[in-house]
Design goal:
Number of domains of chain B: 1
Number of strands of chain B: 0
Shape of chain A: globular
Strand order of the largest sheet of chain A: 2-1-3-10-4
Helix content of chain A: 40-55%
Structural class of chain B: mainly alpha
Largest sheet of chain B: none
CATH superfamily of the largest domain in chain A: Periplasmic binding protein-like II
Strand content of chain A: 15-25%
Oligomer: heterodimer
CATH topology of the largest domain in chain A: D-Maltodextrin-Binding Protein, domain 2
Largest interface: A-B, 38 and 32 residues
Number of strands of chain A: 10
CATH topology of chain B: MetI-like fold
Distance between the termini of chain B: 16 Å
Helix content of chain B: over 70%
Radius of gyration of chain B: 23 Å
Number of domains of chain A: 2
Distance between the termini of chain A: 68 Å
CATH class of chain B: Mainly Alpha
């Protein structure tokens, strides 16, 4: 390089590195607090699954904008990332299953549920989650599941406590069940290979699997409680204390979204194409969950009792502190 | 640095382009393509013959159809751009940081001795082990991936630069000192030309590692990009789409490697390992 070219090169390197450093450090606009024009930028941590369709629908209908909320949906791959994200303030709100929220509360995490998320349809055999076996399996009823290997997506969580509950109710001994942790997409394959005897799946895997040589044995959510609140939207106590108006606005918009989704199931089904890659045929036939406007307190109490009974936690979490 | 040993060095093992007969020149790429075609044939045949379950490994034609469907979607290209942007940014930050830190540490023996054990402690920490940490700080936004990419790629560059700086011929360095070269002049005329091949090797290693970590971060954390699209397809039970996106990421990896080699050839065109006219 000649001196001139060298100097140009140095200048280029300096410019690029300055730009990169500026990009890496700055430009982090504060989220969660109201801006001058009255709108508040809010981030919600969600999982890209059927359950969160009402949020997408509510955004489209403008329910959140009407409350002065400028929503950004951030999809995490699993619920495990969402609770820490809300506690650390990365997300102002998050979506998580009820048992996870109960476990987090009993560990002292300052969480507050603000809206109902998703609930069982209450119809055994026509719910959005259930335990499946290969068609030829000898397992016919929930009681037959005792002593078997069952695949669940998370050990010691809502799916194990609700399966334990339906097996217990049917007269089986749930302590003899051996649970195996497998991701939902892998459960049908493990069943086909015979690695597990049964597996708990939710939509769309329930529809896909039953269409491919599997049979549903029991609906573990509907069997536990017809009104089971399976998941909720939540925030941190800190955020609630600092921004009570934003939280009440979010809860109002969320309630409207849930009511709208419940009243317009076809629209809810249609939004699935906007954020999932579910096959069109499956999308048409899958069972939608129920999207009630309020949290069913008794079912949350039941999930807390089951968590204590199955020794996920040692003492009852403070439901009054968690629930809205 | 004499040129004499080079004549017997590994450079001569490489065939000189002008001397290759035309038939030979096309043989290697042709064999490579044939291998690829065989692989495609096997992936097509296995599910069709029922050797593997086509529910879980669809035939290649199904993947290709799904891929063709993806290529016309704006979402796909957005995700593609997000992955490439994240990779390039992370690689650039790691390169600059690695070179600057490497040259400073390498040319001050006291600093090198002070940091040697720390570097050996930090370097083997797998970047993915930092996932819980970055999720707490940045959630599923691009900075999460950036931290992982920079962390993984930085050590590749730094270690190469340190070796490169250590490789400086003492006679050349002492000569430069005898002639009272300034510190800057020593870096420019002695250190940099020696370290350059190492830096480029570091670049090539870092380019691949950066892509791996970028896609990992997207897949596991949910940072926007091709990795997250794979995750969404997977959690939608869309098997052919999942494989189609995996193929895209694989092709991206091939492109990254090929362009890193092209950069290597261009940056080291004066170096005996690349020159073919000797």
């Amino acid at each position: 390089m000649t001196p001139l070219r060298r100097r140009r090169f140095t200048a280029l390197v300096l410019t690029i590195s300055t730009a990169l450093l500026a990009g890496a450090c700055g430009s982090d606009e504060p989220a969660g607090t109201p801006a001058a024009d009255g709108t508040t930028k809010v981030k919600i941590g969600v999982i890209p699954i059927v359950d969160v369709a009402p949020v997408y629908l509510g955004l489209k209908q403008g329910f959140f904008a009407a409350e002065g909320l400028d929503i950004t949906l951030e999809t995490a791959q699993g619920g495990a990332a969402i609770v820490p994200g809300v506690v650390s303030g990365q997300y102002q709100f998050g979506f998580s299953n009820t048992t996870s929220l109960l476990l987090a509360t009993s560990k002292g995490l300052p969480l507050k549920a603000v809206a109902s998320g998703v609930a069982s349809t209450g119809q055994p055999g026509k719910d959005f989650g259930g335990v499946i076996v290969p068609t030829g399996s000898a397992i016919k009823t929930a009681a037959d599941l005792a002593g078997k290997r069952i695949a669940v997506n998370t050990l010691k969580n809502i799916n194990t406590t609700t399966i334990n509950k339906v097996v217990r109710d049917a007269g089986g001994d749930p302590s003899t069940i051996r649970y195996v942790e497998l991701a939902f997409p892998d459960i049908a394959a493990a069943l086909a290979k015979g690695d597990v005897d049964a597996g708990q799946v939710v939509e769309p895997f329930l529809t896909i699997a039953t269409g491919q040589g599997n049979r549903q044995v029991v609906s573990n959510y509907a069997g536990t409680d017809p009104d089971l609140t399976v998941a909720m939207y939540f925030t941190s106590k800190q955020y609630l204390a600092d921004n009570p108006k934003v939280v009440s606005g979010f809860a109002a918009a969320m309630t409207k979204s849930m009511e709208y989704a419940g009243a317009h199931p076809d629209e809810a089904r249609a939004t699935l194409t906007t954020y999932t890659k579910i096959d069109p045929a499956v999308q048409q036939s899958l069972v939608l969950p129920r999207w009630p406007a309020t949290v069913d307190r008794d079912s949350v109490q039941l999930l807390a009792d089951l968590a204590v009974q199955d020794k996920l936690i040692t003492q009852q979490p403070d439901l009054g502190a968690l629930l809205p | 640095m004499t040129t004499a040993p080079v004549l017997t060095g590994p450079a001569l093992d490489r065939p000189v382009r002008a001397r290759i007969p035309t038939g030979e020149r096309w043989r290697r790429p042709a064999l490579g393509l044939l291998g690829l075609a065989l692989l495609v044939g096997v992936v097509e045949a296995l599910p069709r013959l029922g050797i593997v379950d086509s529910r879980f490994l669809p035939p290649f034609s199904a993947m290709a159809r799904s891929l063709a469907g993806q290529l016309v979607l704006a979402d796909f290209w957005t995700a593609f751009a997000q992955t490439v942007r994240g990779w390039a940014l992370g690689l650039a930050v790691a390169m600059i940081a690695g070179i600057v830190v490497g040259v400073v540490l390498g040319s001050v023996p006291l600093l090198r001795a002070l940091t040697a054990s720390t570097i050996e402690f930090l370097r083997p920490i797998p970047s993915v082990a930092l996932i819980p940490l970055v999720v707490l700080i940045y959630g599923s936004r691009p900075p999460s991936a950036l931290v992982l990419v920079v962390y993984a790629a930085f050590w590749q560059v730094l270690v190469q630069v340190l070796y490169g700086v250590a490789d400086v011929d003492p006679v050349v360095r002492d000569t430069a000192r005898s002639y009272r070269f300034s510190r800057r002049a020593v870096i420019r005329t002695v250190l940099w030309p020696t370290a350059m091949p190492y830096v480029v090797t570091g670049f090539r290693l870092a380019a691949s590692v950066a892509l791996i970590l970028q896609v990992t971060a997207e897949l596991i954390i949910g940072v926007p990009g091709l990795g997250r699209s794979i995750g969404v397809a997977q959690s939608s039970g869309a098997v052919p789409e999942t494989y189609a996106l995996v193929i895209v990421v694989g092709l991206l990896g091939v492109a990254v490697n090929a362009s890193a080699r092209a950069v290597e050839r261009r940056a080291l065109r004066w170096h005996t390992s690349v020159r073919r006219d000797l």
